[in-house]
Write a structure and sequence with these properties.
Arc Repressor Mutant, subunit A, Rossmann fold, about 210 residues, elongated, 5-stranded parallel β-sheet
Length: about 210
């Protein structure tokens, strides 16, 4: 291996869309200090290939078939605590960013970002730094001021977004309606909203619930 190759940032791309991977790989090819060493189309493949190749930077999409990108990030960081991972996603809600960073990502960049920002994030992560665009950093700061929803509350919120009444939610979850009312009250308080409609809107805008 030449010294020139050794000095390059070895990048692995993970996205379930082949055209996206090809386009990004082609773009990175023009950078003297970056080399794409592998591509994967699923979280499971990303974990397997990471074990084999140990790239310097893993560029991970959030939305993948089966295991999500964030789940894959969590699994990789459990096994490799120093793994440098950058999320590149269309999801821009504060909860999306929060979950990714909590899972172990060091950077979060939107797919709509310009090329220079993507390059800056890759280089920052490879150096051991974190990277968040200002708009996402602001949303992350807002998210940090609010209490997290419990797993049950998140489930109730999803059913609210789907349009179910308290009675219907109680039947689906096998709980008493009065218990569901308390969960709904907790959700409204934690989201800092006044009613179910506002809660549903906030859930979608903030990335707490994704409507696939």
């Amino acid at each position: 291996m030449s010294s020139e190759t050794e000095n390059k940032i070895r990048v692995m791309l993970v996205d379930d869309h082949f055209a996206v991977r090809v386009g990004m790989a082609a773009s990175l090819k023009f950078e003297d200090d970056i080399e794409v060493v592998a591509e994967a189309g699923s979280g499971e493949d990303a974990i397997t290939m990471y074990r084999e190749l140990r790239p310097d930077v893993l560029v991970m999409d959030w939305r993948l078939p089966g295991m999500s990108g964030v789940e894959a990030v969590g699994e990789i960081r459990k096994e490799f605590p120093k793994a440098a991972i950058m999320m590149l996603s269309v999801y821009e809600g504060e909860e999306d960013v929060f979950r990714a960073m909590q899972a172990g990502a060091s950077a979060y960049v939107l797919k709509s970002a310009d090329r220079e920002e993507v390059l800056a994030a890759i280089r920052a992560v490879s150096s051991g730094d974190k990277y968040l665009p200002p708009i996402l950093a602001g949303r992350m700061a807002d998210r940090m001021t609010r209490a997290a929803l419990t797993q049950r509350e998140s489930g109730v919120l999803r059913l609210i977004v789907e349009g179910h009444s308290n009675k219907e939610i109680a039947a689906k979850l096998g709980l008493a309606e009065i218990t569901i009312k308390q969960h709904v009250s907790n959700v409204l308080e934690k989201l800092h909203v006044q009613d179910r409609t506002q809660a549903a809107t906030a859930a979608i805008q903030r990335g707490i619930v994704h409507l696939e």
